[in-house]
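Reopening this ticket.

The earlier resolution said the output was attached, but the attachment link was broken on my side. Pasting everything inline this time so it's all in one place.
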Amino acid sequence: MVALSLLIYVVASHVLQQRRHPSAAIGWVLFILLMPYAALPLYLVFGTRKRVRPGRLPPLPRAAETTERDWPAVMAAALRIPAPVCYRELRIHADGADALRALLQVIDAAEHTLDVCTFAFARDEVGTVIAAHLAERARAGVRVRLLLDGVGCRLHSRPDLPALQAAGVAVVLFVPLLHSPLRGRVNLRNHRKLVVADAGHATERLWCGGRNLAAEYFTGHAGQMPWRDLSFDLRGEFVRQAARLFESDWSFARGNGGASGAPAHVAVEPACDPCAQLVASGPDRAEDTVHELLMAAAYRARARIALASPYVVLDESLSSALALAARRGVRVDLLLPARSNHRLADIARHRSLRILADAGVRLWLAPGMLHAKLVVVDDVLALAGSANLDSRSLFLNYELMCAFHDAADVGRFMAWFERELETAHPYVAHPPGLWRDLGEGLVLWLGFQV
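Inline output:
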């Protein structure tokens, strides 16, 4: 049984070209050696990380055709990320109440189509309001589609889906718990959050960011402060790029295929200004696009890197890259909550944080729960969306980040980050004792490497 299990592991890894972190590979091999009867079925269910095979990367543009500011677009082109496209009327939401107003405006203004993708959708005071607005648009003749993650929707008391369907809303669960293995692995979750209204029409608009559709992300529950998060909305051609991503996810969730991972149209020089590009990451992409963009940013940054994430569990390569950036004089600021809503993530993060602190990275702890995901590099790149700085987001989940290249708008995201820093206090690293070090390692191995 051990021999058979190892053979299946090796052949599957080679044929499917499953690139794993060394510790994850060692973990699977040890599990197979020690408990083959349990390990083999678990590997068959959870072991596949990518649905597409990596292919040959397109050639990079010649250096003479680009400037120093173009490195994010050059790197994105090499990773087969769709080319930068135009956007306009970017609104970065001031707080949760502002984000909810903007979301309801996008929903209510939809005249033709309305596509909603979210990880979690609660049946609480905010989720009920959003559901009512979706139902109203469906009854008004708008084609409304709701894509919910099959696991994320169970983390809250999910909305009344039969009532939404009765109103005309099409609802699909992305890889539910009980499904055919051919429809996707249970541990590969869709963590993307976007609302696309009227793509291709004059009224088109995109609402996007890190917020799930639940009260804690917007207004908070009675007697509790809302989580601090980051979201935005915009118009323009970028909305159509997001609509194509939703269409691919919708098709896959319904069992009709979805993204093939084939090279997208790539370009470096945008045809307009300001421009942005959609950075999707996950099993439907041959490369780990967000992780590789972060690695490039750490090595190309000249003066400043600002990062915000609720969960920080970095792999060794990204941790080393950020540490090296700090050592060569780049100001690296990392903002995270003093205490998040996931205790295991809080335990596991200290190894990464000690390495970063020792290299001179400035670590900041925000009071309350910070759920925002943001990376700003100098004045050339702002990445905002759904991806956390942990192995699950960077290597397993379906994630979505939006890359903004316009210096003025990059500055607006940096201004949001600076406002959050005003209430944060510095992180102080302490050497771990033996048992704490063992406990952190165990949590990392069990929870963040599969």
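Reporter confirms the inline version is readable. Residues 69-83+273-447 form a domain with the Endonuclease; Chain A fold (CATH 3.30.870.10). The first helix runs from residue 2 to 15.
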